[in-house]
Each structure stands twice: as C-alpha cells, then as structure tokens.
Write a structure and sequence with these properties.
UDP N-Acetylglucosamine Acyltransferase, domain 1; 10-stranded parallel β-sheet; 449 residues; 2 domains; 11-stranded parallel β-sheet; Spore Coat Polysaccharide Biosynthesis Protein SpsA, Chain A; 27% strand; alpha/beta; 35 strands
Amino acid sequence: MTEDKIAVIVLAAGMGTRMKSNLPKVLHPVAGRPMVSHLLATVAALSPERVVVVVGPGMEALERAVAPHPTVVQAERLGTAHAVDQARAALAGFEGTVLVLYGDTPLITENTLRAMLARRAAADAPAVVVLGFTPAAGGEYGRLLLGPRGGLDGIIEYKDASPAQRALPLCNSGVMAVDGGALFGLLDRVGNANAKGEYYLTDIVALARADGRACAVVEGDETELLGVNSRAELAAAEAIVQARLRAAAMANGATLIAPDTVFFSWDTVLGRDVVVEPNVVFGPGVRVGDGVEIRAFCHFTGVSVGAGCSIGPFARLRPGALLGEGVHIGNFVEVKQATVEDGAKINHLSYVGDARVGAGANVGAGTITCNYDGFDKHFTEIGAGAFIGSNSSLVAPVRVGDGATVGAGSVITKNVAPKALAVARGAQMELPAWSERFRARHQKKPDPQ
C-alpha cells in the first residue's frame, strides 16, 4: 500500500429535493460559506494528490464553486457505488487511499479523517475503513455488521435490515477510506438486488471480505456526521458550527457577553481582549484588532477594525470599511467603502460611504456623505482633525481640508480649505409676535369635530 498518497471523491450530485430550492443542496451556506467549501477546506489540510467532485446534470454553479477541482457528471442517479464509479477516469492509475466523502456533510473534522487514514495504514492494511457513529436516537441508517474480533464484515442498509440488525447501535455514516488499487475492481462487482434497486457503495465491504481482505471501522462523533438534506438540518448544522466558532473565539481571548446571541462567519478573526456584547452578527471577511469593544446589535461584513476601537451599539459596517486604531463608531452609524483613520469619531446617526475620514476628525450627528448621484458613486474626503457639524450633507465629490470646520446644518457642495469655516444654510428669519397671532387665529375657529 502507498501510505502517503491520498485521493478524494466528493459526492455532490444529489438534487436535494427536500430543500425545496433552485440552488444545489451543497451550495447552501453554513457560517457564510457553502457546505461543500467547508468540506473542501478540511480536505485541503490533508494535501491530497487528487480531488474530484461528482455533480449532477445542470449543476454549472456547483462546478464553478468547486474549481479548480475537476468535476464529473453522474447523469443517472443509480446509487452511491454508481456515483463513485463516475470518478474512475479521473483516478486512473492511482493506488493510494481514496477517501469517499459527501458534499452535504460539512462538519467532519480533519482529525477524524486522519484517524481513518491511520487505520488504513495499520499492519492489517484494511481494504475499506468505514466511519461509523452511534446516534443518540437511533434512526434509519445502515448498520455496521462487526465480526467476532471487532473487524467489519459488512454493512446492511436500513430498508434491507432485519429487526435484529436494525437494533444494532453502530451506524454507517457513508464516509470511507478505500484501497485505491482495489476500489474500482470492487465496484465492478456491485449489484442492485436490494429494496431500492440501487448500486450501494456499502456492498464493497462484503466483497472485500469475501476476497480475504480485512475491513475496519473508525467511530466518529454524531455531530460531525450530520447530513444536510432539509432546511431544518441546515439550521442544525449552522448551530453546531456557530458553537464551534464561539468556543474558538473565547479560547483565543475574546469575551462574548452572551455567546448564543453572537453569530460568526467561517473566516471571522477577533483579536485578544475584544469584548462583544449581545446580538452581534459577523458576516464574511471581518477582522477585528485587539482591545476592541463591540456593543450590542452591530452588524459587520467585509471590514477591518483596528485595535482599540469602540463600535456601536446598533452600528453597521459594510464591505470596504477600514477602521484605524482608536476609532469611535457610535449608535446608528453606517460606514461603507470608507477609510476612517486613527482616532476619528463618528458617534451618532450618520452615513459615511465612499470616503476617507482623516485622523482625529469628528463627524457630527446626522452627517451624510452624499456619494450617489443616481448613476455613479463619488468620493468624499474629510481631512485630519476636521470638524463636521451635526446634520450636514457633504455632496460628493468634495474635500474638507485638514483642520477645517463645517457648520451644523450645512450642505457642502464645494471644497473647503484647510482650517477654514464653511457654513451653507439659509439665513435665519424672525417675525416678532407671529406665534401669538397664529394661536389667536386658530382659537377663534370652530372645532372641526
């Protein structure tokens, strides 16, 4: 046996009819990433020599998602053995260990796969290593038939099993590590004389035993082996992944005040001594530096937050937001495609998009960078140390110079020189005693009711 060579076949041709979706089942996201991408990332850690994904007809979106890995099409869905056989040409000449995995089982870990590979490399060189598990609530899974010495003699599908066999505790996950030199010869001998009339991959165990080859079982955790076939199972997978991500964040030095209310993406990075208050959502592409305070009900996607920042509550940081160190982003502030440099403050009820806010600048409550003219986006630049008064509109493209001040309520349409004061609003008019006369007129009118 060639111990150091690994190939992987990912079965992903299922239609996923229970998902009731136009999206291929394995492209449904868990923690912001398609299920199959989770699996392929785990596989990559094993440094396989070859990876091939078996897809169904018309799954061009899936083919693009798994690129650069090659795909083969299972035109007819005739069972798992038939699906694996579609990879025959792609694995021609390969004689290491072939891992057979499922694109809708995204939670399996690298450690579990390595345990299977280690068992394949044992002295008895089993032809097939099957990943088994013991579900807490039984279920209609195939059962693993163990020999008197603990080896694996066969697998019986639930529909074909007797009552005694259905009572066996150890179940088949479907995941296998197979001798690549024997795999396709075994598949050639698989028949379909069973309750479903399909070609079962599980039959290769009995065939290998009949050839005098050993077969073995490695037992995995049930939570790793959840197959996602419905929206409810997708939610269950999401819950498991979120629990893992929360645990990892806290183990790496972040404080989550109410962990179950914080939602991460697969690639969220939090620094040390970050404090996250309840009901915070991290979309894909978020990096948060050390010592950041994130208050309740914030939402982040595609952003970088420097060390020592204070964010929220109720702040929204959208893709392209780059925050320097010590930045303050307050309640109901939205930042998009903008750089906010060290020490700048945007504390209340503002929108800053397609902009640069210089170091130490202060953007007052209700300020808007008017970046979109209905056709194109335009840039706003706020200089270092500038002060933007409350309820101001900066109509891009426009620049406010370093140290300049914009008076409250201004609509700025022209550049403001450094250190200047710009005020652009209507002149205040006052009519003496007007309010008193107005009230008197209305008090004389009859009640409309």
